[in-house]
Amino acid sequence: MEQVVSQCEEAGHEMVQVSPTFDYEEYLHAVCVAWAFGVHMGMDMFASIMGRKVSEETVEPVMLSFYEYSRRLTAVDMFMAEFALNQFRRNFGEFFQQYDLLLTPTLNKLPEPHGKYSKMRKDLGYEEYMRLCEETKVHTTAANVTGQPAITLPLGQSRSGLPIGIQFMARFGEEDTLIRLSSSLEKEMPWHHRIPPIHASR
Predict the structure, then answer these.
(1) What Gene3D superfamilies does the database record attribute to this sequence (predicted)?
(2) What does the alpha-carbon distance between residue 166 and residue 153 come to, in Å, rounded to a whole number?
(3) What is the pLDDT of residues 53-83, one digit of tens each?
(4) Of 200, 201, 112, which Cα lies nearest the Cα of 158?
């Protein structure tokens, strides 16, 4: 992050350490509710098409937990979740009235061992699974929730050779800003020559 900030400053951009304000726990609950409704709708649809029931024999443990949770939710729950997400979007809207771009890590941590986020895990319920995922990718989910243009670039690299992504989020309709900035950063901080130890070309 520090290298990217320095590169942006050298290019003439004014960098300020600031972030949109929001209640993370409220946001996480709202995302969980919204996702559960989508899971319920999708599973019921495919169960009907395939003529199979949603059960522990047909879906992963984590997804079954989501499905069972979604069946307990009401229309009021969905309304309140959407209200919270709309407030989240408004907070980001206010943020971008003052700033052109938001710079964040793509992920909050380096890649975890295979299976960490597996939906086959029986030790994770729907809430624990969502918390596990969002603690890692909250910045990319934020862009999905607000619908604002965003781009992630592999500008960093771990000691083991894995790419480290940096995300830029822009104002609505300003994809051109992201493209220009990305083009500039790719020239100044190229990554095409970096190949991780495990790669399809090897």
Answers:
(1) Amidase signature (AS) domain
(2) 5
(3) 999 999 999 999 999 999 999 999 999 999 9
(4) 112
196 occurs within a structural domain: no
The DSSP output letter for 95 is: H
In angstroms, the Cα distances linking 35 to 75, 124, 148 are 14, 16, 19
Query: At 103, phi and psi to the nearest 5?
Result: -100, 125
Tokens 């690299």 locate to 157
d(CA 114, CA 1): 25
In terms of Cα–Cα distance, which of 57, 56, 59, 73 is closest to 127?
73
C-alpha distances (whole Å) from 114 to each of 117, 120, 149 are: 8, 12, 30
Position of tokens 């609950």?
Answer: 29
Sign of torsion over alpha carbons 94, 96, 98, 102: positive
Q: Check: CB of residue 156 under 8 Å from CB of residue 190.
A: no
Q: What is the pTM of this model?
A: 0.86
The number of domains in the chain is 1
Q: Which of 95, 134, 141, 99 is nearest to 117 (CA)?
A: 134
